[in-house]
């Protein structure tokens, strides 16, 4: 459970960093930085979902798609959220 808590804190940090770069008319560097931060945020989120699935549901899932599907099945994500995640 401690690892899950650490991963959730990491998700909060990465999402905060990503939101800091959201601007209306970004320069090329700002756009590239936002893309990189999005990748970090997505990776942190799906790995947190993987840890949640393992700790709480007892499922060992190896892919981001699998985590999104299983999160929908156990009602962590709504159908709309899972579609957006895919």
Report what the structure shows.
- By secondary structure, the chain is an all-alpha fold.
- The chain has a single domain, classed as Up-down Bundle (Four Helix Bundle (Hemerythrin (Met), subunit A)).
- The protein contains four helices and no strands.
- It is globular.
Structure in a nutshell:
By secondary structure, the protein is mainly alpha-helical. Helices cover 77% and strands 0% of the residues.
* Oligomer type: single chain
According to DSSP, the number of beta strands is 0
- The percent of residues in helical segments reads over 70%
Percent strand equals under 5%
SSE arrangement:
Blueprint: H1 2-20, H2 28-57, H3 64-73, H4 79-85
Helix pairs in contact: 1-2, 2-3, 3-4
List keywords for this structure.
mainly alpha, Four Helix Bundle (Hemerythrin (Met), subunit A), globular, Nucleotidyltransferase substrate binding protein like, transferase, HepT, transferase activity
């Amino acid at each position: 459970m401690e690892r899950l808590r650490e991963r959730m804190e990491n998700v909060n940090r990465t999402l905060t960093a990503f939101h800091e770069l959201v601007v209306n008319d970004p320069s090329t560097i700002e756009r590239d930085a936002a893309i990189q931060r999005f990748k970090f945020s997505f990776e942190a989120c799906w790995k947190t979902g993987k840890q949640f699935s393992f700790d709480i549901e007892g499922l060992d899932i190896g892919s981001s798609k699998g985590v999104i599907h299983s999160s929908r099945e156990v009602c962590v994500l709504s159908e709309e959220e899972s579609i957006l995640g895919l």
